[in-house]
# Entry
Amino acid sequence: MEAGESVVRYEAEGGQARLIIHRERARNALSPEVVHGLLEALTRAEADPAVRVVVLTGAGERVFCAGGDLGQLGGEGGFLATHEGRRAYGQLLLRLQDVRKPTVARVNGHALAGGLGLVLACDLAVAAEHAELGTPEIDVGLFPMMMMALLHRHVGRKRALEMVLTGERLSARDALALGLLNRVVPAEGLDTAMAELVGKLAGKSQAVLALGRRAFFTAEDLPLPAALEYLSSQLSLNVLAEDAAEGISAFREKRPPKWNDR
# Structure
């Protein structure tokens, strides 16, 4: 940890928890402390009933996250301990999807290598137009092994291979066209765009969002017949939820629904 300062800052306000990678001088790189700090912050956000949306971002205005910290690549404690540290990053990617609340990446700047993996692991992503996204590991003799599991779920095979083989960076606009981002806005409009999107998510039934997100990620890797069978069971659960009854009643009565998040 740097200078006695937390490398992950946690801010909760207005229904959202903002998780900030706070290593601006190190380009918000992923140290073991950052990975574990983010895991702990996700658990904290999930346990707080006042938090309805989780936002992940980086400190400053230039870099969201530059990926793994090459200065700590060797790690401490021997080979196996270092390997476990890399596995923790994989656990973080899974946790971002497993947390029972919507996650949004606020891409304030460049998202590279493992930093791009964080963006892809979040449900939604809004980027400042100056941001660049990419997998430049090949240029230092490495390969983006772990985040590839998410990359080829977002883009086609040819484009994914082009990204990891060449290491070329994408502009935010090009990343948007590929489906890596939801929105790209001028830097000065980033927080306004985030507030709009977070407000929409916070206004939904949290129980139904949690059920639906879990169903989405589970069905993603199932063969089509199995996916349809599974999703039919989840729909049956959904219609039994209190908020489903409230939503239908509100629609019929032409009024806004009053969610109980159950």
Q: What stands out?
A: Residues 8-202 form a domain with the 2-enoyl-CoA Hydratase; Chain A, domain 1 fold (CATH 3.90.226.10). The mean pLDDT is 94. The first helix runs from residue 32 to 47. The beta strands are 8-13, 16-21, 53-58, 63-65, 103-107, 110-112, 124-128, 132-134, 169-171, 183-185.
